Amino acid sequence: MKNTFGNNVTLTLFGESHGNAIGCVIDGIASGLEVNEDEISRLLSLRRPAGAISTARREEDKFEILSGVFNGRTTGTPICITIPNKDTRSADYGAMARLARPSHADYTAHVRYSGYEDYRGGGHFSGRITAALVAAGGILIPALNRKGIFIGTHVKECAGVSDRDFGDICDDIKVLSGMEFAVLDTEKADAMKARILDARSEGDSVGGVLETAVVGLDAGIGEPWFDTLEGMISHAVFSIPAIKGIEFGAGFEFARMRGSEANDAFCIESGRVCTKTNNAGGINGGITNGMPIVFRSAVKPTPTISKEQETIDYVNIESATLSAAGRHDPCIVHRARIVVDCVTALVIADALSGKYGTDWLAK
Amino acid sequence: MKNTFGNNVTLTLFGESHGNAIGCVIDGIASGLEVNEDEISRLLSLRRPAGAISTARREEDKFEILSGVFNGRTTGTPICITIPNKDTRSADYGAMARLARPSHADYTAHVRYSGYEDYRGGGHFSGRITAALVAAGGILIPALNRKGIFIGTHVKECAGVSDRDFGDICDDIKVLSGMEFAVLDTEKADAMKARILDARSEGDSVGGVLETAVVGLDAGIGEPWFDTLEGMISHAVFSIPAIKGIEFGAGFEFARMRGSEANDAFCIESGRVCTKTNNAGGINGGITNGMPIVFRSAVKPTPTISKEQETIDYVNIESATLSAAGRHDPCIVHRARIVVDCVTALVIADALSGKYGTDWLAK
Amino acid sequence: MKNTFGNNVTLTLFGESHGNAIGCVIDGIASGLEVNEDEISRLLSLRRPAGAISTARREEDKFEILSGVFNGRTTGTPICITIPNKDTRSADYGAMARLARPSHADYTAHVRYSGYEDYRGGGHFSGRITAALVAAGGILIPALNRKGIFIGTHVKECAGVSDRDFGDICDDIKVLSGMEFAVLDTEKADAMKARILDARSEGDSVGGVLETAVVGLDAGIGEPWFDTLEGMISHAVFSIPAIKGIEFGAGFEFARMRGSEANDAFCIESGRVCTKTNNAGGINGGITNGMPIVFRSAVKPTPTISKEQETIDYVNIESATLSAAGRHDPCIVHRARIVVDCVTALVIADALSGKYGTDWLAK
Amino acid sequence: MKNTFGNNVTLTLFGESHGNAIGCVIDGIASGLEVNEDEISRLLSLRRPAGAISTARREEDKFEILSGVFNGRTTGTPICITIPNKDTRSADYGAMARLARPSHADYTAHVRYSGYEDYRGGGHFSGRITAALVAAGGILIPALNRKGIFIGTHVKECAGVSDRDFGDICDDIKVLSGMEFAVLDTEKADAMKARILDARSEGDSVGGVLETAVVGLDAGIGEPWFDTLEGMISHAVFSIPAIKGIEFGAGFEFARMRGSEANDAFCIESGRVCTKTNNAGGINGGITNGMPIVFRSAVKPTPTISKEQETIDYVNIESATLSAAGRHDPCIVHRARIVVDCVTALVIADALSGKYGTDWLAK
């Protein structure tokens, strides 16, 4: 059990919220891939909090590529990217008592690491670590794009408001790519934001559902047992804090369908094998069938809220009451979407580099 | 991407539906664990088709332990278990044309393995391979039980009928353990079965939702990034054919909750840290918090149905019509539940053997 | 730490000397590779004891391919091969006392597996397990040959007699391929055998050195750190019982050379980059340079001898004297050579399948 | 094939000689281990060039711990350590022609990375990367010491001069620990240094043999197949540039021994199982037997020499002559010894953390 993902292209995350820096190491990557630092910055900006619907705290996310890139291209050796933590004047954490924020990882971190965890700002469990993941995505996503593979995620549901379904997925992904609050029906964004602000004003937070599509993948990617594509994607996606569910294609709706409704009839379009429907979300038997991959991830409401909550002091093991002062995100659904894109890119880059070889991605 | 799961305790599956045998290799297991062949047989019988709601084909599942067990106990070396395939007189598969069963893996297997796949009866993609997984579970589950860890799964929903929620989970798991059609409210089983028979009589099939609980796990199991407990469980569970979604705790319901409703307040009961609710399904930040693990898996309707379906001949790449003759399962939800128990046992045995050491499970 | 090797093509070994069967699972292999059972049998026969210089016990090595092969070709799914153990009427092992054969694994197995090991005939530590490794080699070696890659090992030194060095390596490998006692200078074989018989008549055993060459490998295979080609080969080769040393190219002789003697000058021959000498054994910086890979492995004398030896009863922890009755190999150097070929084939098949992709080996 | 080593405690190396920084990530480490930055610095100083027998170039090796350490102890999360590259004013590398230094990795790197490698100063292949490995050792070695496990390496042979054998290994290791030029017989150091200076004055270089011992390891560490302790150690040690051979215990000398001489008789000393000799180097069947681990590594002469050498321009694929100007090490044997200690510590920390559990090392 490790902080690393992937068999061929691997990503290792490190860092704590209030430590010197966070970062990642990408290994197994093809040599010769263009690395565009502006694109990395652009993806990081999509993850960064902005506006009234996010925390007031502003992170700069200035990254440094320490290794593995030379003359603007990957060398094929491990790429270490660091993002220094600025302006982390931690409050006085010296107190002997520590309160577990409900549904946060404070308590589980304390048990897992026998009390030696860096508890400041959530430490290694902080959502801030996802910035490193996005930086890695800033290299992987353009590489996949050059191979005709595109990934896009929209806020399918937030605070009770639903976005429209994917239509022409290729077009939709293009539109989503630059959006700060990624929805397909922009009117719905306003409604969602209004409800987020409502929750915020009540010292509360909201959750949602992200829907992701991947187009351009060949049929034949994945394994029948264990390393199914669903298994690999879910493994990666669940490491995003706040994700608590994932479903592919019709997902849980399958439970209410009959086989005759659920099955995707195969057909031939312009000499290419397709299915008439895509209830399977592009995956049969753990392996891509050439149709778009479609999956949805459930995002729980941000656990940090300013409403008073019952909890415990987990150092002294006694009851306590928590009133979180300070800044927090009333919603992270819209910020998480680029993180889902990036972990999906990692899974796909890994699978393709295994199937077609180490250097394929740069060919 | 491999047909192996696990870092410390690993399971490798092999075999094809109509080959000589299917089986598995379990490695990294503690030495000295009792191996009760009757218990393995009992678990296999729970997976085996039975009665009118299942396929008419009967498999014997007589297994042989080839290695790794001596004098009734694990030796600590790799355990190979084989289950010979009996009575697999394949129909004449010699025809030049092959029809892709919709939402089956026939086509993706053909592409993935460049036409060299053993296509008879679904080959390596057959649900029959899960028998080997259950055989492994027959060693792992009793070992976890001896450590006070219990796993149980019930048919939460099938063909539109819902079972009651878990109540006292420890008691519920005990009751479920011996049931052929595992529900908590036995009246619901009759309603479900009636609807399965309806579907069957119409040449159709149904899906459902399985709900799994694990009790007795210490707090502190899992990793913050990538090898979160949710990530590991989902990775394993998605390799069960027909599973298309998974959610932990409140799962997709989180999307409609506010943080103040969603958060699980910590409290102290008899000196032990608990949470008042368990929306997190026992996992915070990817790590167990000591509460029961609870997750639900979506099972799609069996894709093999006798209704006529449009499809293609994937050898000649042309349209075709498929009328599946012969025996099939109108529902596999109830049969899949023991498989979910077994993969869950694998994930947990793996995680605990990593955390506490190779020999811990037998101590 | 596992009984599995490889990242892309993996091999898992299982079985005990006196259990039901030994065997292996090969995963990650390309689909469409021809599987020639006669060739597997032929390689197994090279490993099998024969004549007066080997143990009197005769093993049949009749293998069965349980999965992963269909119509004479690999399907791309895991290949399980089993070799049943015949005629293993174990002596009465029921005694309470057990004597550790010096320099055997009896004692370490007992400690490692907390007394639950299958101790009969060396159990999982028996050289017999290498038969499964050779069976795997019977699939991998022909596949590499079809790619122009050839592997050959000769008995470089045995009981104080030295074979000549490799000359034209391609020719030498061809000659070695069918030999039962593989030497380049056949007169030396007679001298070696005579000394082996001497040792045998004195109830003793001898060791030796195996020298292996690989031709046909592209430059560019390997990694700079950790997964260097030397690191991968040595990792695999050391799992052959009795191997206690390995050196690449000039190896330990480098210690007595100056840089100006040791360095291999690069040159161009027929437009191809070569080196004038091959002290590096074909590997620079962990990566192949296109010259033949050359390495030597030290084989210790068979630890089982009939001379009386001091030892302990490791159950009762008391001193004892051991006089091994029964059959044993006075030398296993010549039998080990095909095993070295097979593990080398595994390392190379794994590395190439990673570099060029899963399906490359069958293209 | 990756730049990462280990199953439980893993080490990933990154960086290029003339890039921004080199470094490593250690994952899977127990929480609560003391981290003494002075000890890390001390180990780094043992690796650093010094005096006339080393390159004139001086590296500062000022490291920074970016993550995973809090209040002077490991947190249990990934530890990233970086060492910035100072003063790397690369020569004008802009020329279109590039000469392959014989027996260096320039050419193989060029092929492996398709021409995108950072070729400045050896790039990712530079011995400088071992500084990151030593920094990791600076955390692992003290942790092992606290568990009663000690590792020591001496220059057994250099430029034709041999050091004495290990005597009382525990005492010897203590003495070696602080030595810059680590020999057991200090007079031999002077002779070795004299010969190194001779080679240097002739524009040449020398090699040697390092001998390593590990004491304090329990019996029972290792696996019978593939992940034997010899296999794991050799895998790690061969990633040290210049290592071309490794032998355990009697190693290649076994080839000239009879079984009756080679076998280590078991005996009981103060109730503890020992062997009278230690030809096996502490390992039987891939598993520790409780005796000291002893192995020797062959170090080739530094390939960079100032003597004129024939070579090629590997960009234009034409013959060339190389006269390496500038600073180089006439010998790196004495500098490599701390690196061998550190990779050995990694293998052992990994094995023990697997066997006894994640947290064991800090208990």
Report the portion of residues of chain A in β strands: 15-25%
Terminal CA distance of chain A reads: 33 Å
CATH fold naming of chain A: Chorismate synthase, AroC fold
The biggest sheet of chain A, with number of strands, parallel, antiparallel or mixed sense and barrel status, is: 5 strands, antiparallel
Structural domains of chain A: how many: 1
At the fourth CATH level, what is the homologous superfamily of chain A?
Answer: Chorismate synthase AroC
Report on this model:
The structure is a homotetramer of 363-residue chains. The first copy, chain A, has 363 residues and is α+β, with helices and mostly antiparallel strands. Chain A has a single domain (4-362), classed as Chorismate synthase AroC (Chorismate synthase, AroC fold, 4-Layer Sandwich). Chain A is 26% helix and 22% strand. Chain A has eight helices and 18 strands. Chain A has helices spanning 37-47, 106-112, 130-146, 169-176, 186-201, 229-237, 259-262, 333-356; strands at residues 4-5, 10-15, 21-27, 64-65, 69-70, 73-74, 79-84, 150-158, 161-162, 208-215, 243-248, 266-269, 272-275, 283-284, 287-288, 293-299, 309-313, 318-322. Chain A has a five-stranded antiparallel sheet, with helices on one face. In chain A, strands 9-8-10-16-11 form a five-stranded antiparallel sheet. In chain A, strands 5-6 form a two-stranded antiparallel sheet. In chain A, strand 5 and strand 6 (73-74) form a beta hairpin. Chains in contact: A-B, A-C, A-D, B-C, B-D, C-D. Chains A and B meet through strand 1, helix 2, helix 6, strand 11 and helix 7 of A and strand 1, helix 2, helix 6, strand 11 and helix 7 of B. Strand 11 (243-248) of chain C pairs antiparallel with strand 11 of chain D, so a sheet runs across the interface.
